[in-house]
Amino acid sequence: MNLQVGHSQDSAYWPPECFGPDLFELLGQERPAHRWLIIGPQRSGSTFHKDPNNTSAWNAVIQGSKYWIMFPPKTQVPGVYVSEDFSEVTSPLSIAEWLLEFHAEARKQAGCVEGVCREGEILHVPSGWWHLVVNLEDGIALTQNFVPKSHLADVLTFLRDKPDQITGFRKDIRDPFDLFVQRLRGQYPGLLSEALDEIERRSQSKKRKWEETVGNKEKVESGTGGFSFGFGGDDEDIP
Ligand SMILES: O=C(O)CCC(=O)C(=O)O
Ligand SMILES: [Fe+2]
Q1: Is 51's C-beta closer than 6 angstroms to any atom of ligand 1?
Q2: Which ligand is nearest the CA of 123, by number?
Q3: Please, is 98 exposed, middle or buried when counting C-beta atoms within 10 Å of its C-beta (0-12, 13-18, 19+)?
Q4: DSSP string, 104-156
Q5: Whose CA is nearest to atom 10 of ligand 1?
Q6: Nearest-angstrom CA–CA distance, 186 and 201
Q7: Do the beta carbons of residue 81 and residue 45 sit within 8 Å?
Q8: C-alpha angle with apex 234: 233 to 237, nearest 5 degrees?
Q9: What ranges do the domains of the chain cover?
Q10: Which range (15-24, 61-70, 87-96) has the least confidence?
Q11: Which helix (H) or strand (E) holds 116?
């Protein structure tokens, strides 16, 4: 796949090739805000969040060093509260308070990934992963959000199902989901239909689990059977 839009010779930098093509490049000038130069003093940072629109990100440290702690998408991160529709994240504590209060407990949690990124190093934040970041020194970093093929279904699902939570698009772009689908249909119809099939498969699997659970609950209530609940399955977020 050759997606070289915007990588002109006079660019100040090129995205690292190891992350593969960025499907949001198909949106050209209509893509949402996606790159930031992050300049911060020692002890500053970013409190727990997921990146916008279910995008993935890379973060390149140009100067200084950063401590990262990350958790897989479905983790209940200690001390971080999410509203029922996932639209709001409340972390009532400052980064320092969270570290003092919850760090020890959180790092024991399954799936926790932590480490330090130094000058010249690049970190990958997979779609949907929680992360908190602290500058260990005064620092400068460059970060860019992108949509890899492996998370196309996640981004399409977000754009389709959470229109009120979409961020970063220009105001005149009324239907980002439809725009993205049209561009994909024009350039990569195969990728689009694979992603739509994947979305359908996930939704069937969710429906099946719901029916199994409700069915069993009815049996329990009417005294005809036991309650069982299956964990895992193919609608899990696998980064
Ligand atoms: O403070 C940082 O370098 C992390 C930034 C980040 O996670 C973001 O911009 O989404
Ligand atoms: Fe982030």
Answers
A1: yes
A2: 1
A3: buried
A4: HHHTTSTT-EEEEEETT-EEEE-TT-EEEEEESSSEEEEEEEE--GGGHHHHH
A5: 51
A6: 23
A7: no
A8: 100
A9: 24-147
A10: 87-96
A11: strand 113-118
pLDDT, tens digit, 9 for 90 and up, residues 90-114: 666 889 999 999 999 999 999 999 9
With H, G, I as helix, E, B as strand and everything else as coil, classify residue 127: coil
Q: Which ligand is closest to the CA of 38, given by its number?
A: 1
**How distant, in Å, are the alpha carbons of 55, 57, 154, 236 from that of 35?**
12, 9, 20, 28
- CATH superfamily for 24-147 is Cupin (2.60.120.650)
Q: Residue 174: in which H helix or E strand, if any?
A: none
Best probe residue, ligand 1, of 48, 58, 133 (max atoms within 8 Å of C-beta): 133
How much distance in Å is there from the Cα of 134 to the middle of ligand 1?
Answer: 9
Quickly tell me which residue has 């950063």 as its tokens.
Answer: 66
Give 232 Cα–ligand 2 centroid separation in angstroms.
26
pLDDT digits (tens, 9 = 90+) for 175-204: 999 999 999 999 999 999 999 999 999 999
Q: How far does residue 84's CA lie from ligand 1's centre (Å)?
A: 24
| Ligand 1 center–CA 189 separation, angstroms | 33
59 lines ligand 1 (CB under 6 A): yes
Q: Which ligand 1 atom lies nearest to the CA of residue 125?
A: 7
> Residues near 18 by Cβ (< 8 Å), separated by ≥ 6?
none
Please tell me the distance from the alpha carbon of residue 66 to that of residue 35, in angstroms, as a whole number.
18
